[in-house]
């Protein structure tokens, strides 16, 4: 089966539903920068290279603590402490009692400072706003860290609808979170296009809930799944611009 074209997916859409992490914000780099600083504070006797490797492992989450949190199986703090404990074991270290909080105390401010918007996001938001196309956010992160990201990027007022795992107590790919986002948008699911970097959560999960979907494949890895995909959000912006027609020239 051939994947649908991007133009076909966007045709007649009434709203966009964007993922946050590694879709509109460079969360991987922010987590690695913040994690490197926090690991250095917690284990200063290790080398700087070790600290960055620890931070990368924390982001990679080989024991899949974050998906367990997203499914509602573990609370946020347990997810975070579990990830840190796994990193410690992998590097032959320990996390003494109370040091998880010390890690977070360093990590938090560093994470806020490291927030960066991908350069193809403003154009997409501007095109959607120009044509009156509502844009909402759907993320598997919690409300508090999501607000940190949006505040750091001065985007809090841009999105009226932000659905996090706190909204219903679980996240993607549970069909109910996509439908809740559509309800808050006031749009039928088959008129909402979900866009994100996770094939499982932002595309297959969204389609299973009745939404349209576009996979943001920034790395260009490709997939055998018959889904619409783009290498950057600028491709979506270009199709939207053609869909709505060229801007009216000044007279």
Distinctive features:
51% helix, 2 domains, 251 residues, Rossmann fold, elongated, six-stranded parallel beta sheet, disordered C terminus, 6 strands
Provide an overview of this structure.
With 251 residues, the protein is α/β, with parallel strands linked by helices. The chain has two domains: 6-25 and 116-244, 3-Layer(aba) Sandwich (Rossmann fold); 27-113. The protein is built from twelve helices and six strands. It has helices at 6-10, 27-42, 48-60, 65-70, 76-90, 99-113, 121-130, 143-152, 165-168, 175-185, 199-208, 233-244; strands at residues 15-18, 135-138, 162-163, 192-196, 212-216, 228-230. It has a six-stranded parallel sheet, sandwiched between helices. Helix 2 packs across helix 6 (99-113). The termini are far apart. Mean pLDDT is 94; it is low at 246-251.
């Amino acid at each position: 089966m051939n994947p649908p074209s991007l133009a076909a997916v966007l045709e007649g859409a009434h709203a966009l539903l964007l993922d946050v992490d590694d879709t509109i914000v460079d969360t991987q780099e922010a987590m690695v920068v913040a994690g490197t600083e926090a690991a250095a504070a917690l284990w200063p006797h290790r080398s700087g290279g070790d600290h960055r490797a620890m931070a990368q492992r924390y982001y990679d989450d080989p024991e899949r603590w974050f998906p367990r949190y997203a499914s509602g199986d573990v609370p946020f703090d347990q997810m975070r402490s579990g990830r840190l404990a796994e990193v410690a074991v992998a590097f032959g270290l320990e996390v003494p009692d109370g040091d998880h909080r010390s890690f977070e105390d360093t990590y938090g401010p560093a994470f806020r400072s490291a927030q960066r918007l991908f350069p193809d996001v403003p154009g997409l938001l501007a095109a959607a706003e120009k044509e009156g196309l509502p844009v909402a956010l759907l993320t598997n992160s919690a409300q508090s860290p999501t607000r940190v990201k949006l505040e750091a990027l001065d985007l809090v007022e841009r999105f009226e609808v932000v659905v996090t795992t706190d909204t219903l107590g679980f996240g993607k790919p549970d069909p109910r979170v996509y439908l809740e986002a559509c309800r808050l948008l006031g749009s039928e699911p088959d008129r909402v296009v979900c866009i994100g970097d996770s094939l499982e959560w932002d595309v297959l999960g969204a389609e299973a809930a009745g939404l349209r979907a576009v996979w943001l494949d920034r790395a260009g890895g490709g997939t055998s799944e018959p889904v619409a995909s783009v290498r950057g959000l600028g491709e979506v912006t270009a199709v939207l611009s053609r869909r709505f027609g060229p801007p009216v020239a000044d007279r």
